[in-house]
Structures are given as C-alpha cells and as structure tokens.
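Lab manual, section 2.4: Encoding a predicted structure.

Procedure: take the sequence of the chain (305 residues), apply the prediction step described in section 2.3, and record the output as structure tokens. A sample record is shown.
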Amino acid sequence: MTLKIAILHTRTKLGAKRTNMRRLEELINRTMIEHEVDIIYLPAFPLTGPVVGYYPSQKIKMMLRNFSERLSENDLQQNQTFMAASKWAHEFGVYVISGPIIERAGPRLYLTMFMSDPQGELAGKYRKIAITKHEEENGLTPGKSVGIFHIRRKSASIGVFSDEDLGYPEIFRALSNMGSNVIIGSMLPYNSQFFKMKSEDELALLTLEKETIYNFLNVRAKETDLPIILVGGAVEGSSSNGYIAFMQTIIVEPDVGVVKEKIMEYEDLNLPMVVEIDTSNSKPRNYDPIFKILLKNICKKNERQ
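Recorded output:
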C-alpha cells in the first residue's frame, strides 16, 4: 500500500497571520487540484512564523505568549492554526499535520506538532522533546513522549520530530521501534548545540551548514532503516526586508542517504513535493521500556541547560 504525502515547501512571514493563511490556502488549493494525496504537511509555525532566534531577546517571551494557542478539547475553537488545518482536512478528506506551533497548557508553553484527521478532529499531538537552552530560558518546556501519528485509512504510522530532536538517536530509535513507516520533521535555521546558523553569501540569507544536516539525517536513516523527510522553507521579515532565513527540504533513504536530486532549494519555494511511501513492509510495534528512561533523561538534561 502506498501513502502519498504533500510537503509544502513554502515561506512564512513573521507575525503575519492573515498573509500566511492566505498563502497556505492558495498553495493547498493548487496542490489538491494537481495531486491526489493522503496527507498535507504544513511548514513550521505555519501562521505566526518562528519566534526564538528571530526577534530581539527582550521581546521573545512576550511574543511566545502572544502567539500561543491551546490544544485542549474545550479550546480548539479558539485555536486559529488548528481550525485552519481542520477546515482543510475536512474539505479535502485528508490528514493535515502542522507544526510546531506554540502551545499553551496551563502555565506551560510547548512547541507542539498536531494532526487533524479527515473529519476535522484532533487526531494526535507531539510536544518537542529536545528544546534548546535559549528556548528553555524563554519559558518553553520539553515534552516527554515521542510523536506517532496514525493514518488509519492506510494502516500507516508517521513518526514526527522538530529541529533539535534530530541530534538525539534515542528519539528516532523510539519512533522506529513503535512502528513508524516514515519519519517527518520541520527545521528552520536556529542556533543550538548541534547546529549553527550561518550566512549564505550567495543569497544573503541565514541558513544551516548543509553537510552537518546531511550527516545527521544519513545517520538517523541508517539507524532506523526508515526514510526521513526534513521540511524546511523560508522565513520572511516582518517589514519589507524580504527573506531573512532559508532551509532546504530534504529526503533521505536508508540505503542511499540524502537523495540530492529531490532536494528542494530556494528557487523551489511555493512548490509542493509529493512523496510516496511504501507501507507494505510495516514493522510490528515493539516499544522497549528503556526508551522511556532515555527520553526522560533528555528532558532532565534540557531542563538543566
């Protein structure tokens, strides 16, 4: 059985919710006219754009609070990002995976990915486990469980991750052992203990060292024996400054590594990529309790940073 995923390799403008909503609506409509897919994967921070590392330090905590949204059942109607994803999922009869977004749960803030099913209902969420020191200092809290989204109509499972998670093999091994058919995650340029932002002279944009990202992705694909998709895109300044950051969208196969001819570059912005995943060789779920201990240790380590 084949699972078809539409990856939206696009751009997001900082803080411009209406502009971002309109752009996504147009791209999704065009994608669904041209392709028949099971899943639409939205870019990171689809309506607000990223916050940590993209605003002055003194404004970050305020921006995180202002852009935070709740994902509890009673608050979904007020969650603008979820309601947009829910609308698209129901309208086109597909699953929509979004995120991360900034989730508020009580006094805590998380970086959270979620999925809407074809009925427009919340079908799963994942709170990013590996937060950076800068994120923790600005009030973000690490999640405690890996993210597996189940595509029931295809009997398939999607493992998800977000940027810094890529540095931790425990997270990816857990996703593999829980029966993922493919692992998908979002990444935009940022500074961390694993990845450093740099300026791309040719484009005058902030980006990440390509070879470092390729090496991490190749290792994770070989460790898990699963295809991995890293979804990038561009970040546009809040004024008329144009694009300020860019990340490639990259597909990795465990047997061949990074598939260079399928990398989506700057000139490919606003073009969807449709990826087909063979789910006929699904692995049985075999979640080893040792991963709970390892993941808990990652959370503790992040809280001490």
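Check your result against the sample. Helices lie at 17-34, 57-67, 80-92, 133-137, 169-177, 210-224, 290-304.
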